[in-house]
Amino acid sequence: MLTVAHLTKQFNAAPVLDGFSFSLPRNGFTVLIGPSGCGKTTLFDVLTGVVSKDAGTIRWGGRTLAHLGAEAAYMQQKDLLLPWLSLAENAMLPARLRREKNLITVRKRVESLFARLGLAGFEDHRPATVSGGMRQRCALVRTLMFHRELTLLDEPLSALDAITRRSLQSLLLMLQRDFQRTLLMITHDVEEALLLADRVLVVSAAPMRIIQDIPLATPKPRKPDDPTLIALKESVLARLEGELDHVVA
Amino acid sequence: MWWPKFVAAGVILVLLILWELACRGLNLPPYILPPPSRIGLVALTRAPLIGPHALATAVEIIAGIALALVVAIPLAIVMFARPALERALAPFLVASQAVPVFAVAPLLVVWLGYGMTSKILMAAVIIFFPITVSLLAGLKSCDRDLRLLFGLMGGGFLDSLRLLYFPWALPQFFAGLRVGVSVATIGAVIGEWVGAQQGLGYLMIQANARLQVDLVFAVILWLTLMGLGLWTLVGWIEGRVVTWR
Questions:
Q1: Do A80 and B146 touch (CB under 8 A)?
Q2: Residue B20, domain member (yes or no)
Q3: pTM, to two decimals
Q4: Are A41 and A62 in contact (CB under 8 A)?
Q5: If contacts are CB pairs under 8 Å, which of residues 175-214 in chain A contact chain B?
Q6: Residue B135's domain spans which residues?
Q7: Are A31 and A193 a contacting pair, CB within 8 Å?
Q8: CB A73 within 8 A of CB A146
Q9: Which residues of A37-59 are buried (b: 16+ CB within 10 A; e: fewer)?
Q10: Would you say residue B11 lies in a domain?
């Protein structure tokens, strides 16, 4: 279980996180949704150790850690593939940086994941020669190759077109189901949050706090036209609009 | 568009024609200003004389480039790894370029003799600055998110340098190298002017003293072609190394 308690971070005396607390169950898919500039990315920066926290505790796997830099896999909106490496070499990077001895086995593992994600035959292609959706799927394979249970996803699908996004949403569900990952994702898309998550945390404008905690027990995959989801979507959007009005006022 | 590549050639051709017509129309003696046709003829017919000197200068330039690379690449990496060192070394780097190369050349000849060593060092001094500065700028320009990703993947400095920073900086490195090789002839020729027994700079001084202005121009033509050749060679290597652009 990931437990974050009383996390505090200020920039120029302005609190972005002011005692923010939450916990994630193992193997759960939790989505964080909130207005722009509320501090979601700051939360990820603090969790990954990019910026240091002012106060608070982070506990993962029974240990208290300064940050989760060495514990979490990470994927963001940009695919961050290196243009000078092939897709397979990009996906193998976490293993190479871990100095895994048997790179042939690693390559085979990558090839098998490529086949599962519809990238078979593109292992030796450079990123510039494939579509945005394929690059993002390759980034997903690289995220899996971290071999870390906790995975932080910072708007990983927001730059994709609707069809590619739908296909990658299915892959994220497969990632959670088949690879037993604990996922924490930031998104701006309420529908995406409700389709994927086991739990949606709606957060306020900065300083960020949880204003709505929505557990979702309905089985996946879910349908966007499910009346329960549509009602929930309206409710979340109303809360977010309320937050926006609060910021404007 | 096909025409831009012919603009430079067209401008040069027009200038050469005007130069040729001026020399003929004004009856200028060749020891004052020889016409381009004569310079071209001398550059070809005196090739047996110019060639060995050109070879000596080329060796000095290539050795200077090699020496500059050996110094510049580790220096840029060390300054990238240790920003405090960059701040400490920056004044020396700038000073190395602020002192006129003409002022240093006689000293180097006194210290290192009339042989190739002083010329190689002169060329290296001129080349290493643009290479160091451009490589350092390239390393520092690496994408923040990629740096973060490598950090999270557990990449140490050397692995990150090999797999991320250095490939990232290669285009800027080659831009600096192109600037370096295009000015490399300056260092070698100045060194040869001050004191040498061979080389195109030495041949220019000898020809000038004998009022063989056409030979001086022919040597300048050879030097220009060498500079263009090096520029093209670096571009060719860049095209084979930086294959992802």
A1: yes
A2: no
A3: 0.83
A4: no
A5: none
A6: 39-241
A7: yes
A8: yes
A9: ebbbbbbbbbbbbbeebeebebe
A10: no
Q: Residue B74 falls within a domain, yes or no?
A: yes
Mean pLDDT taken over chain A: 90
Backbone angles phi, psi at B92, to 5 degrees: -70, -40
Per-residue pLDDT at A175 exceeds 90: no
User: Per-residue pLDDT tens for A12-22?
Assistant: 888 889 899 99
**Residues near B35 by beta carbon (within 8 Å), at least 6 away in sequence:** B19, B20, B23, B24
Higher pLDDT, A117 or B235: B235
State the helix-helix crossing angle for B47-81 and B166-194, rounded to 10 degrees. Answer: 140
CA-nearest residue of chain B to A86? B244
* For A49, nearest residue in chain B (alpha carbons): B152
For chain B of 245 residues, list the mean pLDDT of each consecutive stretch of 10: 80 93 90 92 95 95 95 95 91 82 84 88 89 95 92 90 96 94 87 89 93 94 93 94 89
| B244 part of contact set with chain A, CB < 8 Å | yes
Q: Among B119, B117, B75, B76, which Cα is nearest to B101's?
A: B119
| Nearest beta carbon to residue B145 from set A73, A76, A97 | A76
Give me the phi and psi of A7, to 5 degrees please: -75, 130
Instruction: Give me the residues paired with residue A24 across strands.
Output: A2
Q: Which residues in chain B are contacts of A69 at CB distance < 8 A?
A: 151-152
Cα distance between residue A234 and residue B147, in whole Å: 39
Taking an 8 Å cut-off on Cβ atoms, the answer to whether A128 and B153 are in contact is: no
Q: Looking at beta carbons, which residues of chain A come within 8 Å of B153?
A: 93-94, 97-98, 146
| Strand ranges inside A62-194, DSSP E | 63-65, 72-76, 150-154, 182-186
| Beta strands, E only, chain B | none
* Digit-coded pLDDT (tens) for A160-170: 888 888 888 88
Nearest CA in chain B to A148: B153
What chain B residue is nearest to A145 in terms of C-alpha separation?
Answer: B153
What value does the mean pLDDT take over residues A238-249? 71
Q: What is the CATH number of the domain that holds B73?
A: 1.10.3720.10
B167 neighbourhood in chain A, CB within 8 Å: 82, 84
Structural domain count of chain B: 1
- Does B194 reside within a domain? yes
CA distance to A68, A222, B79, per residue, from A175 (Å) = 20, 16, 42
